[in-house]
Amino acid sequence: MMATPVTTMDKTVAAKSGPASDARPPRAPRPPRPNFRQIHQFPLPVNVHHVPPVIPHNPLSLISVVLSYLTFLISPPRQEVYSAYFDKATSSIHVTDERSINALWQMGFFGKGSLSRSEPSWLAREKKRRGLHNGKTSEEITRLRRTERRELKLERARMEKLAIEERLKAEAAAREAGASESLDQAAQSTPTGDTTNVTAAATEKFSLKKAKEARALEAKQARELAAQNAALAGQNQPETSSNSKSVRFSPVVQKKEFLSTSPSSLQLPDSVISNLDADDFPNEEHLQLSNEEAFFLAYSLGALQIYDSHLKSGEIQSTSPTTTAALLQQFCHHSFQPARDASASLQPDDPFMISYTVYHHFRSLGWVIRSGVKFGTDYLLYNRGPVFSHAEFAVVIIPSYSHPYWSETEERKNYTAEKQARSWWWMHCVSRVQAQVLKSLVVCYVEVPPPAASLDDIGALFGQYKVREFLIKRWIPNRTRD
Amino acid sequence: MADADEDLIHAPANASAQPEVDLSDETQDFRFLNHLNFFADSSPGIPRRGEKDFEPNPTELQADVLSASRGAMHNALSYPRLHGAKTRVIAFYAPDGYVPPAQPGRAKPKAGGEDGKEDGKSSESTPKPARPLPNSARISPDACVYVPSPKGQFFKTMGQADSSSRVWLLPEEALYLIERGSLDIRWPSPSASAAGPGEEDLSVPMSLQAAYTCFMGRGGLTLERYSVYTGLKRLGYALFRAPGWCDDMEQQDAAVSDASELTSPELHGPGLAGMLGSLFNWIHDPRSTASTATGPIIGTGIHRHYMDVYRKLAIIPWYDPVTAPERHPSDTTPPFRVVFHIYKPSTPLKKSALPTPDFRIAVVSTRDQTTMPTMTELGALLESTPLDPPRGEKMDRMMYMRLRHGYRNVVMAVVDQGVVSYLRIADSAFGKEKLYENKGGPQGPKRNRTNQKPRKR
């Protein structure tokens, strides 16, 4: 009997209400992912030339092998060397050449875009913003997901608030009636037809999924309520709002949602677009390499040349690239804040020496190692790369001074004790955060050697360090009981 | 009493039927106590807890739930806790530690439990000094409470029986039992000898406060160790003191053995094709231009395979837990030392011949040891445990599991003023898992994971 008037009211209210109260259209399917396997097929920016297979019973295969070698003899393939420059202000390495940026990102996931989350995607985003390009960058996908999740949480809070209000109403009605009947019965006797649904829902909690499902229902209820409130001339309004938590969309969320659902509305007017030339704006973004990454590329792979100052692409390289020995000095000095004086001598426990040891160790085992600053750790370890899988391990580095040299004098003992001290609270913080983001915590101790006599042989220098990994995880006795 | 759910834990047949409930992770809804029947043996098991309200709201429903919970808690607490005549176990405090039985031919109690049977044949012991006796060798000098007629399930995993089938309890065992109301400890009677016939009537019961005073600090028992002991015990684990219990163990050899060396990556012997290949490699050997002194390490020539590149990159030595020598427990720094061996409730136990423990635990007080262990301390702790490499079909398949399991492991209980946090520490050797040799891609496609739980990159 109630059904027909409600639906008609629905329509009128829906027509009047703004777009915010409308249920959002279902999410469009994600565009197909690019073929990451193809894009990131090389794990390091090093050219590898496979030998053609030798098949013993097929002499022709031998010829092909010989041929391949002969071609290499006559015209040896050149190993690509990229160039970058050291920026003292940020104490990091900048790569500005477009081709180098792509190569370093695609082969081994080195660096991060200065205007992006990780992959340099500013240009794509900018093009999209100007309506020149469609397809989603990873930043946008993440933002969309976050907006969605936040909205669902707000939705859940709103549902809970609504349930509490209904409950309060039902209780008030029961009190007025003064009857001994139970609250549920009282709820059924209230004038609004649909409240039983809500009170029943009030006893259980709302999961995000439930909030999603209940969205349509909730919208209907809200409209009903609005209609009722209008009819009752705001009689209940002040009461309910005064004694309950107010939940509303923050303007930021609304704006973001707006942006993500209807990007076309933010486009510039057509006249402006027509004035813009499609590829006429420069790429403002550069690739930023951490000092460890840069040193690995330069010293270990020989795939990077680092200059002291930024040169325009057309300019002739007047200065020669920094030698690896000088580079090591520079990075060590810049591993302090503020950077040490160039004349300061290298110490075996300079932060750069220790962090590079760990970086090189995991790189040499095949991990893609990237900064873990987002999770409060030193490094994250990816299998193959961030586009393929989540990082499974998060690494924190602790220096260790177990060599007898470090306990020879009292002064050194105090110094090293201070250097290796980590509080339990710190440990618990780190391990709980890693559990929350489903990563395993690796505590990586680096054994620091005594100061070396000569710094000429960098390989020998790093060969004196030693790495030991411990995996630390919360142990929950309730879960291991069987 | 809380015995009902604890008994369930101890009964493995019953416990296995229960779905796994992590009580500590759920909210406390004490209304469940009303549904517990403390008398009936056929209790339905550990009840599920209720749902969580995050903030107060003005509804009467919430107020009702709150008051009902409070009422249930009061009800449970106000239940009179008594020593039942059938289950009552009386013990005697022996302030001087273990004393051998006074009369060799003393009548044994008829109701001697399982432990009585173990020592049944060794009843002809003579009153010689206690320590050298072979049958009393198992009794710790720290034991200070004895139970003349042990009965009940607790003595399956606690206490040590002597030649006259008295069970001797360590301070933590006695304290745990008296605290949970399962033991009635009596002061030694001043006049008569402890073994007098009419002792039960004359002796004075020991209060809980007195028990804490007497047992805490005795024989190396600290409040931190007791917190760990009692916490795990209540969860159903069986705990036994490890050889590293005493802090003042003499250091046998303080010299840190640094025998562990870097295992250089092995190169497999070349076949005919390989030899041919190496001949050709020689023409353009990148190694000729490789230099670890100034780089590039991998050289500037032609690289044949990424594996070779990675092999050349391996210049950083790493610790190999397999080749490391095992240490004696005394060769560790005191707080970082295994003090308890832990057995799961499901592990079949025989007190006389304990199996390999399921877990080894070290107890650290954050107030005495304010910093995390250094690598030397942590390494020594792990090296004092036996090698436990990842084995099994599943481990062989899954590299992440192997790394997480590690080659040795130990549990560290970090006690911060009564709050215990357990950390499992494993010695995982990343250097033993050459990721670049993995032909298969990552462990699973990323898409499958996204629908499990939102996870951040």
Automatic annotation (TrEMBL), chain A:
It is an enzyme of class 4 (lyase). Its EC number is 4.6.1.16. Keywords: Coiled coil, Lyase, tRNA processing. It comes from the Eukaryota. One of its GO terms (molecular function) is nucleic acid binding. Transmembrane segments: none annotated. Residues 1-10, 183-198, 238-247 have a biased composition (Polar residues). InterPro entries: tRNA_endonuc-like_dom_sf (IPR011856), tRNA_intron_Endo_cat-like_sf (IPR036167), tRNA_intron_Endonuc_cat-like (IPR006677), tRNA_splic (IPR006676), tRNA_splic_SEN2 (IPR016589). It holds the Pfam family tRNA_int_endo. GO terms for cellular component: cytoplasm; tRNA-intron endonuclease complex. This is tRNA-splicing endonuclease subunit Sen2. It comes from Penicillium egyptiacum.
TrEMBL record, chain B:
GO terms for cellular component: tRNA-intron endonuclease complex. GO terms for biological process: tRNA-type intron splice site recognition and cleavage. Residues 1-23, 100-142, 433-457 are annotated as: Disordered. It comes from the Eukaryota. The keyword RNA-binding does not apply. Residues 111-122 have a biased composition (Basic and acidic residues). Keywords: tRNA processing. Residues 74-187 form the tRNA-splicing endonuclease subunit Sen54 N-terminal domain. The keyword tRNA processing applies. InterPro entries: tRNA_splic_suSen54, tRNA_splic_suSen54_N. Residues 446-457 have a biased composition (Basic residues). Belongs to the SEN54 family. This is tRNA-splicing endonuclease subunit Sen54 N-terminal domain-containing protein. It comes from Penicillium egyptiacum.
